[in-house]
Amino acid sequence: MTLRGKVSRGVFWEGGAMLVNRGVGFLVSLVLARLLAPEFFGLLAIAMLAINSLVFLQELGFSSALIYRQSDVDAAANTAHWTVIASSVMLYLAAFILAPLVAQFFRNPDVTPVLRVLALTIVISSVSRVPYTLLFKELDFRKKVIPEFVGSLVGNLCAVLLAVAGWNIWALVAGELINSSVTTIVMFIVSPWRPKLQFEMKLFRELFGYGKHVAASQVLIFGVTNVDDLFVGRMLGDAALGYYGMAYSISNTPATNITRLVTRVTFPAFSQMQTNAARMRNAYFEVMHRVALVAMPIAIVTIVFARDFVTVLLTDKWAPAIVPMQILAIYGLIRSIAANMGIIFQSGGKPQWLSSIALWRLITMTALLYPAIRWGGLIGVCVLSVAVAIVDFAISAHMVNKIVEARSATYVRLLTPLFVYSLVAAGIGYGAEQVLLSLNTWAVAALAIAGVIVVAVYGLLLWWRDQQVRTEGTKLLVWLKNSRSQRA
User: Nearest CA to 330 among 255, 262, 260?
Assistant: First the structure.
């Protein structure tokens, strides 16, 4: 199979599984939001913040180094496997010891037991890290999505059942532990790779030599994307962090998942194009176009329908999350469109550029968060995040253009039509919803019908005006017709 075919197949499996997983996760989040108080989500966010701050030191960038590596892969995989497990055990011990200090910082003693139990996911997930990475390297996304789907499904269902049973915060913790455990077990069932008792210091140095730049950038990016949680939790409390976390989760779920999908599918492919700038440039803008096709309407719809969505589906107790959700939708859109910029840096042999960009973002966010919260509370944090993201996008685009020899005008040509189509579709959908509500239609039904109208209008505009969408759609229709004929 050609590289393009492998990437397309990877997008199909990875995107399909992600759509199902996140759809189930989204529904579960709505159920849990109605069952549990915002304070429990804030408490979980504090524990996850502490854990995630350690997880980036778990594999030292070895996953990216394995994907990039072209020789002695099996020996390198064994070296990476035992390194990741050893580092994970040490990180768990660190989390266990430091838990009381984290609780003291956030002025909440309940953080200590939650963090100590939840940190077990660090060790559990480390066992399947390398086989997970090797499936990425081979672009075998069909096998990779099975463990994720099964783990997410079982973990989410258990969390809901335990929440109904009155477990409160421990329902959320148990869901995370079950998810990690099931994912790890199923990963070893579907993966053909088995670890050997092999560790070579030479390979460790080579993997670390490449991975240290990626790991450094990941740590810095984590700091950038989570330092706001740190300030909000410390200055405004658990409830505010719960509102902020819910707003971020809903408005940035598309961005998070699109970034994850693009990173996982395109990095192995771009790594194989590293000596061909023209080929990499065409692939880069093709990926950006396809990402924006999805991300742009989601961001516009989130802004337009946020208030109705929250009051109808989450109830009024989540009302403080509405405006932050609308502002963070812009942040999520920028993240989505910029999803493959970091991949260009890595594939182009410039992983250190990731660290440089992330460092200035971290310094800027840390310096301005305190006055932003004092000035505008949650809204101030959201405005700051958007402003920094805009500047970051401009800098990253300039550096990407050097690698792939692109022009800035191409970004405007790609994104402007999609913005117009999205705005028109959202406006028509919102108008239809208001008409239905004036006729005393059930609010949930009016919201659902408006969503269908938005999708239909946006799809028609794309088919009418976007040549690439029309070409790909025609190919898909022909393929479906031929498949139906063959079965007949």
Answer: 255
